[in-house]
UniProtKB/TrEMBL annotation:
InterPro entries: Aromatic_CoA_ox/epox, Ferritin-like, Ferritin-like_SF, PaaA, PaaA_PaaC
Pfam families reported for this sequence: PaaA_PaaC (PF05138)
Chain intervals with Basic and acidic residues compositional bias: 10-25
Name the UniProt record assigns to this protein: 1,2-phenylacetyl-CoA epoxidase subunit PaaA
Gene3D superfamilies (UniProt xref): 1.20.1260.10
SUPFAM superfamilies per record: Ferritin-like
Region (Disordered): 1-25
Length: 311
């Protein structure tokens, strides 16, 4: 065996026996590239995802709701930072990743390009968007790349708080006035289909999935996770007293799963390519934050260098 072959077989064995690949281990270039792309996209989603809810911080209806929302939005910033750190262990630089986000060279989850129109959206984002994120991320705790898997353990604990605060907010609104109940249903109607799109395109249109599953970066296909999310959400909607905007949604006794309609994949493709309701605004806000933070980064770097010199 050549040395590359023996490294490859060691890597294959590590993955096949469910051990973790660590940053200093040899890994195939494709594995490294796939992870950088996936972790960066995940980190960007956490950071851009602060915006739709962050928009309601200044007009939260009570001090309690404001405190909860602030904690939640701050958690998302933390998730972004863990994930950028995990990506950096693969040899990329966070500044470089941010530049790629701003230039559009790297993507983030399409869901954050929809506007949050009422405070009920805060609840529905927590319930459905964080709920879908949990379905996606719990299996990632067993991802083959150590730093990613470990980051996910902490992230998932916080996501479960996010989902509960959303559900609790909606329960409170559903016990309120007719107008409040209508706000909740309206928000559910707007977010349901985009939430289903969070699992990515159908399996037969997801070319990288098979390789990612073989590398055990991913553990389940997009369609499996989408099904799990639908099955989980239906009884929760019943408890809340809301419906999902899908006439095809019904229990299938034979499959022991819910049948459901097809998301508008053309809309998904449009939004991913940059033409969603809020794409420009989301990137403009991120760009402004990056520009405004330049002096802080420069000062921190200069301070660190001086500190090292002094010691
Ligand atoms: Fe998060
Ligand atoms: Fe979250």
């Amino acid at each position: 065996m050549t040395s590359t072959e023996s490294l490859q077989s060691e890597f294959d064995h590590t993955v096949a026996s469910d051990q973790r690949v660590e940053p200093r281990d040899w890994m195939p270039d494709g594995y490294r590239r796939t992870l950088i792309r996936q972790i960066a996209q995940h980190a960007h989603s956490e950071i851009i995802g602060m915006q739709p809810e962050g928009a309601w911080l200044a007009s939260a209806p009570s001090l309690r709701r404001k405190a909860i929302l602030m904690a939640k939005v701050q958690d998302e910033a933390g998730h972004g930072l863990y994930l950028y750190s995990a990506a950096e262990t693969l040899g990329v630089d966070r500044g470089e990743l941010t530049a790629k986000l701003i230039s559009g060279a790297q993507k983030y989850s399409s869901i954050f390009n929809y506007p949050s129109l009422s405070f009920a959206d805060v609840g529905v984002i927590g319930w459905l968007v964080d709920g879908a994120a949990i379905c996606n991320q719990v299996p990632l705790c067993r991802s083959s790349f150590g730093p990613y898997a470990r980051a996910m353990v902490r992230v998932c604990k916080e996501e479960s708080f996010h989902q509960r605060q959303g559900f609790e907010l909606l329960m409170t609104m559903m016990r309120g006035t007719v107008e409040q109940r209508e706000m909740v249903q309206d928000a559910v109607n707007r977010w349901w289909w985009p939430a289903l799109m969070m699992f990515g395109p159908p399996d037969d249109k997801s070319p990288n999935s098979a390789q990612s599953m073989q590398w055990r970066i991913k553990r389940h296909t997009n369609d499996e996770l989408r099904q799990r999310f639908v099955d989980m959400s239906v009884p929760q909607a019943e408890t809340l007293g809301v419906t999902f905007p899908d006439p095809e949604l019904k229990w299938n006794e034979q499959r022991q799963h819910h049948d459901f309609g097809t998301p508008d994949w053309d809309e998904f493709a449009r939004i991913i390519s940059g033409d969603g309701p809020c794409n420009k605004e989301r990137i403009a806000v991120r760009r402004a934050a990056d520009d405004e933070g330049t002096w802080v980064r420069e000062a921190a770097t200069a301070f660190a260098q001086r500190g090292e010199g002094a010691r």
